[in-house]
Structure prediction request, 952 residues.
Amino acid sequence: MKVTLFATCLVDMFQSDVGKAVVEVLERLGCEIEFPESQICCGQPSYNSGYVEDTKNAMKRMITTFEDAEYVVSPSGSCAYMFHEYPHIFQGDPIWEPKAKSLAAKTYELTQFIVDVLQVEDVGAQLAGRATYHTSCHMTRLLGVKEAPMKLLKNVKGLEFSELSGKERCCGFGGTFSVKMGNISEQMVDEKVCNIEETGADIIIGADAGCLMNIGGRIDRKGKPIKVMHIAEVLNSR
Amino acid sequence: MNGMIQNRNVFLDKIANRLGRDRKTIVKRPEWAYHPQDEVLKNATQDELVDVLKEQCKNIHTDFVITNTAKLSDSLKEVVNRYGGGPVITWKDERFDQYGLTKLMKEEWPQDGVDLHVWNYTKKEENIEKANVANVGITISDITLAESGTAVLFSSKDKGRTVSFLPATSIIIIPKSSIVPRMTQAARIIREKVKSGEQVASCINFITGPSNSADIEMILVVGVHGPIKATYIVVEDL
Amino acid sequence: MAMKTSVEKFNDRVDKGLQDSFMRGAVSSAQERFQTRRLGAAEELGNWEEWRSHGEEIRQHVLDNLDYYLFELSENVSKRGGHVYFAQTAEEATSYIQNVVEKKNAKKIVKSKSMVTEEINLNAGLEKLGCEVIETDLGEYILQVGDHEPPSHIVVPALHKNKEQIRDVFKEKQGYKKTEKPEELALHAREKLRQEYLTADVGITGCNFAIAETGSITLVTNEGNADLVAALPKTQITVMGMERLVPTFEEMEVLVSLLTRSAVGQKLTSYITTLTGPKEGGDVDGPEEFHLVIVDNGRSDILGGEFQPILQCIRCAACVNACPVYRHVGGHSYGSIYSGPVGAVLSPLLGGYDDYKELPYASTLCGACTEACPVKIPLHELLHKHRQVIVEKEGRSPVSEKLLMKAFGLGASSPAMYKIGSKMASPVMSPFTNGNKISKGPGPLKAWTEAREFPAPNKERFRDWFKNRPKGGEQS
Prediction:
């Protein structure tokens, strides 16, 4: 199966290990991966800040980039959701709305793709440790991917789980919110890190680079001995 | 006499204008696409509804008594005693006689020194003064909602509103035949009356247990402005 | 108090909120309790999504036909002998009510909770006439006795105060002598207020839902205060926002069920009352005269536009209780009687961007509000629409942000620019980099690194690794 990877700009620039893990996991599951070089960013930072018109070129670029793809897979629920927003954003545009619709229809978040399309729940991963899982807001609420990550994680050998209290609550990232309202964001991520600590877990797993950068940055600043892992890295462990 | 209506046209014209059309003079109430309310306690028998009501009373801080017309007088007497006796105030309602309470009200209570005031509209304000100092207010439910544990009271000149609000405690007699699944059925009954040209009561109370508030530190206090305690006495009238 | 509750700047209000540890504790535990109850109440129905869809279709139908239903409502109120006044502005509403009060020569007025009367600053208008205006909702009474503090939550106005503070307010202002136990505090209020109901000349209520077909108004409380306000004084004035109505009793029933479950997790609250006109023929209790004041005050400007869905709101505060930002900053940070996500959408529409332009940004767009809303208002989308209006129509965004976003837009749409930018990221950031992290970031990163580390850009971008790796599934 041919999979076109939408790596996201955060992974490309800051978390290349996550991108590598995605490639390795999917290849192991028999996928052939391609990575179109012309991909940049889904446009959320400026779009979410209200610069809708200024973001349209970036979005059009992404639509064109993935035009010929069979499946578009992204290791970020939030960025994958953004592709699902495109038809809404280009509503009424005779050229771009249909193109946006076709992109949305073939775009999947990584775990969603593995579970729903590849129909795999056990990727044969193995990782010793006690973990907890952060459910990212956009992925769960907006993209509607709720079950897939836990289905996969439950089958990782050696991994124990503790429930994260307040797991439905936002970590305080919110893209530019984290700098625009830095003081509020700080309190939010601080509470999240406290909740993570309370679980006694030594690994925090997430499926969105933005949330993980936020949570990880706070864990690091507080000097907590908790490892931050993207779910792709967990699924790639053996 | 009809009341005055002021400033209406200019106000409604602006609304129509904002909605981008002329004023509407005919709107048919739509066939709604969803009917979730019909599923609640669908096909429940009258006995099952009594059980639901009894269970719900635990959630609403309300004592539940079930009795038949032969024993109603004793049950009522006992609850009034438990609440510390009179003064008692009741509606003027022929159902009290139908349920065999004449002897209690006309003979036993006077003999026992329980002060009883029966609502008498010709005495005007005196009724309210009596209600204000009453220890117990007794009313009869016109429709009863099993799901929420709610008594529906229709006001009239003989059925003063304040009987269920001003006394320190409240006893509501609930004819078993008056119990319906939920507010849906009550709303329909009321609407049928309206459609058949009957005038809707100037006050309809849907009363669910005693008055309460959680305005102070979210701690529940039972008994704020209205009754502090409440008992429902279900009468097997079927 | 008017809709605007503070003259302080947004950031100062937020700082104050963030430093108020009692308030934050109270808010977070209240949020958890409300959430648990709300979810429990939704779950036991088993078909909550259908309920929400039904609520949504009812509210949308009413808004689309608002002129018709308001006409029907006013006709039916009038037929039952009630007076109806349509007020386009806060001033019109207040002056009509002042007139009624003056004609009645009223000295004492009891009120039950009403957000719209707060919005139009009614109490001040009545006090100007020399009237004593008494709030009877326990939470609002506490705030009023305590020097007219603004509410911090739509459903629990005094959420930010603890019981010791409330005891002190009663002690200082009313010579209260008992303890801080909530039962004793409530009993004190009960005794005080009972006398007020019995001696008031006018009762003023809000309106949860008016019913067009019968000309009725519906009041929803747990305390029973609205019933006494409506039953005892000789004159009743009900003030409603113009969108708060339904076609018939049947739709009222559905919305009340959604409201009570979403607001407090109850199947129904203790007192739900529908009142139709003044009292009839022989009635002893109930008002002799009934006035319904229907208030626009900026609402019609919302109709027909992209923000219309906010008028579906039934004021349950489920979004407030779900909001992770409200959780930390509290209600007063919003500077409006309408706080939380609904406040962040509604306040700029009713009060203008001058006072409220920051509110739409006080959200991570996490969607918790949208998910909680019982009438399916897409709250986070409306917050985003505000941002778009602020940036694109109003041009109010800061120049530095505009430049940054322009640069981002260019970078994200031009591979050449992105290549330069992303390749340069690592060397450019290296002076700030310590190992694999940045602890003191420059420019916009500063706000980030105040609280957390920022990752250093990869030396080798993912795309470079991908291009250079040995092909054929053998991992590097």
